[in-house]
Design a protein that fits this description.
two-stranded antiparallel sheet, 6 helices, homodecamer, 147 residues, 434 Repressor (Amino-terminal Domain), alpha+beta, 2 domains, Cyanate Lyase, Chain: A, domain 2
Chain lengths: 147, 147, 147, 147, 147, 147, 147, 147, 147, 147
């Protein structure tokens, strides 16, 4: 058994138990964004969070222990994602990659937006022409330093 | 000469002329996000926008004509980007890809967030622990339809 | 168990039960194109459709539940398909890719043909020199917007 | 000089001379689909067609000679296309690849749709919810033969 | 169970039953070239052929049914084959690829040699300096057509 | 200047001088298959052959010298060829690769068909249903030896 | 002209002018590690540093301006480096990658070692059995945060 | 069973038995860096070390035997690592690769830093702005020799 | 069961039975180089050799039969090997590849060193500065022939 | 100008001046193996060697200076070499890679054969059945050390 197996269990149990990610997040006491990423094997849970998740999905103790182990992260099965929804995000990096780079450097100088000290929120944005997906990302700016 | 050559010209001229993207955008009359992407060869300019950009960067008429041609898009030179700043965005897709998928499907059902009917805004988010990069993305939800 | 396993079950059961895709589609009440894609794990079924499919192929309740979960899409096992029939479609994209791009931009301006708001029909086109495969594709044009 | 250089010349001249592909096709006397593919270096022109194209774009005799040479075909610069418009076609092959395969085999038996004995037509399909791109493809069915 | 499993069964049974491909072909009533390809999962058998093969290798009815399903073709496990014998054929395509192209176009004009309407024969060519492998390939020429 | 440049010169000169490969081969005194491969940079010419080729295509002495240098071989620009004609040969290796392997081992035992001690002939095979491309390959069998 | 061209100029000038990187660093007033990386196009110089470097290598004003532009980083020309010296570092990541991961997580919890807030020093470590390369790396630990 | 299976067993047992790598190393009597790499299948243990590890993790005799077999090394599952922590090390090779090369050649001449005659130490470096990961690497310099 | 499974059995049994490859070779009556390659699934054994190997490793009759089947060769799991020992050989091909080519062509003319009619011997070369691995390779030169 | 350009110059000059590598080596005073590798941009020459080479090939002083700069090594243009002669060496690594590994570990324990402290000799081995290429490689064994 490894973390990947536990993720597969959670995915299957969530469907069988008809739980929404929002409900899971409410039990865990964290945002639905972080909670979903954690349940999908991208974040590390503490003992209390793991206990909640284990109870919600009926995990064994051994499975629950894996939730507290720092996982090997990365949820794509190929360098270029094949699922249309995930591909659109990849396309945004492809089309807007140099734009992100220019504008962040213009505003902050040389450095990066952290993908670690990072949070995001995803919500519905009502629109008469069809509702929109609205995502707010916030990552700490980390400057390159001379030495 | 092709669009790529024109992009390289703009990149070099902007440095020589010490213009910021924000200034360019003000002249063009569009957001700095769209303007930067357009100048970097990812969007199509109309005649008036092209005239403004050509004047700002001292482009020839032939170069200016290319700005109005729909470009072959995609600004990455390899499937996995090597520049650290751009890679962080790729990493976000890698780590959060399945989370995006789950949460969008939970909220909207089967479909995608459009990367075409899309806009974004990038700004500085002041923070006592170090300022943050704040990006708001908004893309129309497009549902899969049965037929 | 995951969606992929359910797809493999359906594929095997269809052969054993000697059902044509056209017959399956008639039971589901949708086109044979959409129905086949859905049964092959590329589309999401609603409760009623899933019940019909489950009955036709003798699926368990757990298997049937997977049909209603939005699948991770993409049916190719490598970036360049190896099956000769599927490769021919890839070759069409390779040979006609820039032609599609030029003609759509000439007719509609900058934007894309949606692969989401999309439908297609595949039928036999009788021809004295040998019958032909006739495919009609229809996808909504989505324009890039300035902002 | 090679065919690729001639293609680049044509692409640049068409923009400078403000010719539409439909106009080019009318002069050549073939469909806009075939003519565009031919001008983009994917098809071979005969002497008369080459003369028309050479005159339209102001090509030299040496450049014109290349139009009559069978080209090395394939217009994508990477196995997975990066331009969003062309990628959507690749995505269709990815999502519907096995569906194409199943339905063609169901209708015709083992074999392929020819990408050589092939024609297509691309037109605007008016729609109150937004016009659509309509593509009709027709390729001869080629059966595998036993021997 | 899928076609690949059936192929693996046939491969193992042939060794255990000490059958040569030539013998299998004689029972099937087709050439050894077609028969081998069919048994290795690259061609579709009809009911009678499948019955013969099933009897020769002791296949179950379910396994036999798979022989009549059009297979997903392509027998290489990587884009560049690693087995020295198969690699030599790949090398021939690499070294002689442009020669094939030039000579076929010189003789026939623009088009291809069909890999579908195709047959081949492989035999021993006695030679005092060491016997040779002799392969005769015959594929229908398919011309590109204007439209 | 390198061999590749000389190949490009020959390709361009052949078109300008309207020479067929068959004519070139007659002057060189070798088969059209070997001669074409040699002119396309895959074989080494001796002094006399190089002189003939240089005269036919108007090569300089320095260019002619390159013809006598053993070239870096391999005429494909990517692992999987994109040109439809050349791809069909790759597809034959993909579909028939394991068949080649089985039948050669059945006839000769463990070893390979040499791609070095190799010759081939390509000709038109008249056929009332459409002429065919006929290719005869002959390569020495090389057995693996124990030691 | 782009940053890559400037890097090539510096590399060639350093050889012609017989300057060591240590000398360059002394003039710039930073460590030899940072200075070398900066001159090789991986870091951004400020106006004063750029002036020093421009004078040392005889750069034009336009070239010097590029030194102050944040570069597109990444100095490897392929995903797996081919130069033996650089490959050894890649091999260390390959062999010790999971060890780095385990030990950093054991000491710090979930998070990463920053490659941005990072410094390193490379020096000779005398050893009677043959001198050794000694590298000290120091990168800030960045913890993943819940939200 | 192979070495990879034994590594997976150790990984799982360590979590279940709540052992730190530092504790394991103390029992083995080697550094935590070497011990972790060895337990993760990258180094070969001698009989005594294997006995200690087997006892700590409750391995069978057959499993223990594998620890003494030289393993097939390399702990990354793809050429470019996807886990963020391990990727940062890859990024360091990408950004600093040519810097490593220049500085080692400047100090030692042509040659490499050995990745075999190599040791490293990883520790916490306290810092008021946030603690840092400190890694000291020491590898023997191996010069290229003429002959 | 396939040849790969038999190879895995042999690998595991050799460790359990504490047999050296030199001992296995002595029983088989061939060199340790050929014998090891054969046991690792790269060569074909005759009936007598297979019987010896089967007895040494306790193989079943079915497993033994696989040893006499010509295997699908190639022992690397990725195009660029990751194991440091095997990588060094790949690096030799990378660094010395063009040198091999120049010197063989200088000595023999156009052609190759056969990797089929090939033998090698690997032994310890005592050296006061540390013993060396000494490998002698001998492969028949195969000339390209005109035709 | 860079080292690669100098290598191209040497390659072209050697052909024009009709120098053999053996002659070049005699002038340099080193083996033909090392000398060829050095001239092809894989080794570093000292001042005296560079002067000899520069005189032999008529290099400028600037070109000659590059010979003394440690080159970026690796002479293959793709991960899997396409030239048949070089590919055979790659195939040997593929087929015999695990054999090299087993036999070196059996003789020496865990470690590698150095590709740096390495020399080789390539010569003709007369044989009545056709002369053979004989290559002797000698590389220092480097053991992995515990710490």
């Amino acid at each position: 058994m490894n973390r990947h197996d536990v993720t597969e269990r959670i995915v299957a149990e969530r469907i069988a138990r008809k739980l929404s990610w929002a409900e899971v997040a409410k039990h865990v006491g964290k945002s639905k964004e972080w909670t979903t990423a954690a349940c999908l094997g991208q974040m590390t849970l503490d003992a209390q969070q793991a206990a909640v998740v284990a109870k919600l999905f009926g995990l064994t103790e051994a499975e629950s222990a894996w939730l507290m182990v720092t996982p090997a992260k990365g949820s794509l099965s190929s360098p270029v994602p094949t699922d249309p929804l995930i591909y659109r995000f990849y396309e945004l990096v492809s089309v807007y990659g140099t734009t992100f780079k220019e504008l962040i450097h213009e505003e902050f100088g040389d450095g990066i937006m952290s993908a670690i000290d990072f949070r995001m929120e995803l919500k519905r944005e009502p629109d008469p022409n069809g509702d929109r997906v609205n995502i707010v990302m916030s990552g700490k700016f980390l400057p390159y330093k001379t030495y």
